[in-house]
Amino acid sequence: xxxxxxxxxxxxxxxxxxxxxxxxxxxxxxxxxxxxxxxxxxxxxxxxxxxxxxxxxxxxxxxxxxxxxxxxxxxxxxxxxxxxxxxxxxxxxxxxxxxxxxxxxxxxxxxxxxxxxxxxxxxxxxxxxxxxxxxxxxxxxxxxxxxxxxxxxxxxxxxxxxxxxxxxxxxxxxxxxxxxxxxxxxxxxxxxxxxxxxxxxxxxxxxxxxxxxxxxxxxxxxxxxxxxxxxxxxxxxxxxxxxxxxxxxxxxxxxxxxxxxxxxxxxxxxxxxxxxxxxxxxxxxxxxxxxxxxxxxxxxxxxxxxxxxxxxxxxxxxxxxxxxxxxxxxxxxxxxxxxxxxxxxxxx
Amino acid sequence: xxxxxxxxxxxxxxxxxxxxxxxxxxxxxxxxxxxxxxxxxxxxxxxxxxxxxxxxxxxxxxxxxxxxxxxxxxxxxxxxxxxxxxxxxxxxxxxxxxxxxxxxxxxxxxxxxxxxxxxxxxxxxxxxxxxxxxxxxxxxxxxxxxxxxxxxxxxxxxxxxxxxxxxxxxxxxxxxxxxxxxxxxxxxxxxxxxxxxxxxxxxxxxxxxxxxxxxxxxxxxxxxxxxxxxxxxxxxxxxxxxxxxxxxxxxxxxxxxxxxxxxxxxxxxxxxxxxxxxxxxxxxxxxxxxxxxxxxxxxxxxxxxxxxxxxxxxxxxxxxxxxxxxxxxxxxxxxxxxxxxxxxxxxxxxxxxxxxxxxxxxxxxxxxxxxxxxxxxxxxxxxxxxxxxxxxxxxxxxxxxxxxxxxxxxxxxxxxxxxxxxxxxxxxxxxxxxxxxxxxxxxxxxxxxxxxxxxxxxxxxxxxxxxxxxxxxxxxxxxxxxxxxxxxxxxxxxxxxxxxxxxxxxxxxxxxxxxxxxxxxxxxxxxxxxxxxxxxxxxxxxxxxxxxxxxxxxxxxxxxxxxxxxxxxxxxxxxxxxxxxxxxxxxxx
Amino acid sequence: xxxxxxxxxxxxxxxxxxxxxxxxxxxxxxxxxxxxxxxxxxxxxxxxxxxxxxxxxxxxxxxxxxxxxxxxxxxxxxxxxxxxxxxxxxxxxxxxxxxxxxxxxxxxxxxxxxxxxxxxxxxxxxxxxxxxxxxxxxxxxxxxxxxxxxxxxxxxxxxxxxxxxxxxxxxxxxxxxxxxxxxxxxxxxxxxxxxxxxxxxxxxxxxxxxxxxxxxxxxxxxxxxxxxxxxxxxxxxxxxxxxxxxxxxxxxxxxxxxxxxxxxxxxxxxxxxxxxxxxxxxxxxxxxxxxxxxxxxxxxxxxxxxxxxxxxxxxxxxxxxxxxxxxxxxxxxxxxxxxxxxxxxxxxxxxxxxxxxxxxxxxxxxxxxxxxxxxxxxxxxxxxxxxxxxxxxxxxxxxxx
Lengths: 348, 589, 401
Known about the structure:
The complex is a heterotrimer of chains A (348), B (589) and C (401). By secondary structure, chain A is of the alpha/beta class. Chain A contains 13 helices and 11 strands. Chain A is globular. Mean pLDDT of chain A is 86; it is low at 1-33. Chain B is mainly alpha-helical and 589 residues long. Chain B has helices spanning 4-12, 29-57, 72-77, 80-113, 119-131, 135-145, 150-153, 159-165, 168-193, 196-204, 209-237, 240-248, 254-263, 269-296, 300-303, 315-346, 359-365, 368-399, 405-419, 422-432, 436-440, 449-474, 477-485, 490-497, 499-518, 522-527, 535-544, 548-576, 579-588. In chain B, 51% of the residues are buried. Mean pLDDT of chain B is 81; it is low at 1-27, 296-307 and 585-589. Chain C has 2 domains: 5-236, P-loop containing nucleotide triphosphate hydrolases (Rossmann fold), CATH 3.40.50.300; 245-388, no CATH class. In chain C, strands 6-7-8-3-9-10 form a 6-stranded mixed sheet, sandwiched between helices. In chain C, helix 2 (99-109) packs parallel to helix 4 (143-155) and helix 3 packs across helix 4 (143-155). Chain C is elongated and about 80 Å long. Chains B and C meet through helix 1, helix 23, helix 24 and helix 29 of B and strand 1, strand 2, strand 4, strand 6 and helix 2 of C.
């Protein structure tokens, strides 16, 4: 090797070193403080308000990875044998049941709180995750100008009257939507009946957008007249800004309960798991619930609380007047891959 | 009489008998550095790609399934939705390769063989279109023709156009136009290098003008095959259009389907890996064929000598057609999507109302989370471009050496990276950098900016090396040798003797990487550090959440910032570089 | 200032290469001496020069500049610390520097102040006749001018050792001679020690105080030009220092002969009619041993037809007018041509001429492995060797085995 080439190689090595250290510095930063940093994977609208409040209250440093449910689950899946998250906070207990079946969640934790009856009903027996609130799937948001008489039952949606007018989310991109698909199957009496329901909708020109936002946008733009979305998103859309009085919401019977929940990484260091437990307790505390209800007032804050002593926000309808069902998350969680793939190929 | 043996005696007193060889067993410093270079290439190119491809048949190795060997996933992607997506990619690839070549050939001919005016400007503009990532024009088109898009807001309702653009036709159009610069570059090199004498010889020996074309055609044929192969490969591996226009149009393409099988839930990495096999195969095959075809009859031979080119006069009618055609091309390829994006960013978002507003720009300026991505991407671009140019220069130095096995391996690796779509590359990074073995070595790069930058650098390395290899090979080793024997130490010899000659190509390679990274989509999408989205991801997020006005305004800002950065760097070089540097660069680059 | 250069059993092996590029080369260049290394491409002369410069490391052996050991198997003094200068085959002028900056480079690197350096460089440019070119860039100059800049750059710092790597080979023929003379004048003026490599024997003889001939990495012969010309060590050296043609024959005996004047027998196409040739043996010849006779360009001369000294008769095949006379190609057998046969007179093509061969310039080497050379035609033989002289030498086709 001539000296000339040695110089080149030297420069290359220096560059590589620079690239490598960029990552190392990042890693070092997180371990610098005395307390372990709690890594929060969350898809909730109020999450950044919550981690700030939590750190302020407890002094525990947090690192928030705020993303959609899909990418968060991807990150967990990808780093299965090298996990770097502390807790996951997303909508839909089926997703948590799936993770639990893969033994990725810490089991046996239940915060000492006074559950409401509704809350108690969605707490898993093995303590692998903790519900933090409940929304409904899927609220029927409709354009009052175009639809004076909205459908009054799920089956009525199949009428040719609504050809090309109905939109919903893609269950493989929108966290809350698989529970809706599964819920319809459960309600209609089986998977094949449910599949028939969605393929019929498809035949009638169902528009599948990725998530709540785009589906509601399609409603706003007049592309569709009826949007099947998460209740919190539908109510929030009405609240604006800008306030949208052309939108009305109907809750067909039954609505599927969609718990938002927190699960703790089974492989996280013990110190971080302990912090995650404190985080859950904080979320369900009076202060935590206040943050949850103010952090995303036209979106995720529009939930039904699971602990006693907290009233739902005034924009929410009384749950007593709505027929609901709760899916067994373990049964239906196991079917998620198959049904999403089916939906992808046949409905989307 | 003096003889060799007699002479040996003169100084031979010192050397009694054969001297024992005392070379140390330890590798020299140079060897360590060279090993580091290869280890780097292994870690940033080979490992991720291999890890991901192996995952498809051995998910258990990566904790992604039960079997150590299975063909289930490969079989799986050959049916249903994934198969349809791959099939779509293939036929779109073929069609767009043809569109690109058909449109690129006349442009190349006009610029190299006719006396059309503004030739430099035309070639420059074509080059510029190459710097713009495909999701940008795609975004412009989508925003223009969407059912609630610019066109309708302006009161021009053309449902037929909406239907056409938001479908296979639109995808083929955008990707086909995108292939024009590639075809242009491949073909214009051949046409420029082809001396008039080939045609003259045919004419002198009795061919008509038309017949002489058939004589000349085989000389250009390799370039045309190149254009087709590159066009096909580019379209099949494109992610920008697949993720935007095609996705909106519900027209699944392979790369996006691969991305979806990772990013939608529940994610399946083995399925994505199986798709990677098919995509890499369909890209590698034409590229390998092209490389093989060119090896035998490189047109570099034809361009080795500077030949006088006789430019054909276009005439009046010809000029009208030529300018008309070029105008149409730039209008459709650049003008329309640019208008779509610009108008989209300036229109009020409410339905039915048509009023111009700067509210979107104001909203961005007042929201740090919208401004930060610009700075972030600028930073990533600058860092990556610098690293890539250094690595690319090192690689180019290797490539200009005599053919050793190491050189051939490097050559192959760089070609392989070109054949691997960015989205696969990124997915490979996710897999490879979650391997427990790396974390045991203390390498924890997943979800860090470091990994993102390394992935950017690795994916840009081949282009950078190719851009530099020509210039590096032109700089004779004797220039550094001369500096050394006249008293310069190695760094000074390089800085004074070589760097000025390479300043311009290095600058271009830097800018190429910088703009590429600044607006890069697939790798950013899969590897960005949590809560630190780069610009392209931030834009896609806004568009995905139907914040079209904000998203398009961000895109417009992105293009302006990129243009300003390029202008700043080029202008700075013009002002600051000594006259001699530019002198040398001009004769070199 | 000028230094003695000692090269001691230097070896250079490249990784992966079968043969050594340099194989135990030893030589000494006295201070102020010009050594020209002569050899075909691949002979190792460039490698040796690069080892001297320090651009290449030696694998074994040692190089000393003056008292300093600069290279051996372990030690390697970097080129910039050897205080030498070099002129390159491809000029190697930095295209981004002006002529003056190029010329001043070595001075600046040796810590001269800029104004002083520029003044010295300017003076050196004047010396090579490029005084008014300082502000130009190399690519604005002709090839010859560029090489003069390179020469100025090398000379300006008055180095201990000057290296020339085929500096004239990329120039036109007429330019070459002029620049060669300039180089000789300038380096002698400075009194520097010079190592100069070339594959052109004319250049070597014109410049060298000593000449070293390299073949396949070995130094075959090293000495003054006259010694090389008069007593080449091997047929290779003789070939490389200029020949008109080669004849094959035998030393008839009786008894061993040489080194010195000998008479050899050259067979012809008619085995009864061999040629008797007086020549000079370069080593001891055993009786009956096959030999090759290498004729220097001036060895064969045209003489009056039928005159006494004539030994060979040939046919003029081509003639080139050279001003003072003609260089002829004379055929003395099928495919056996003697080239560069000079005469003032004009002969027509196809004309028959008688040739005298100078014994002193006909060099005889034992020929252990007989080379396949064409035979002298029987009708070309004028001085016939006696029959016994050829006995034991097979004639005709057998000879070509």
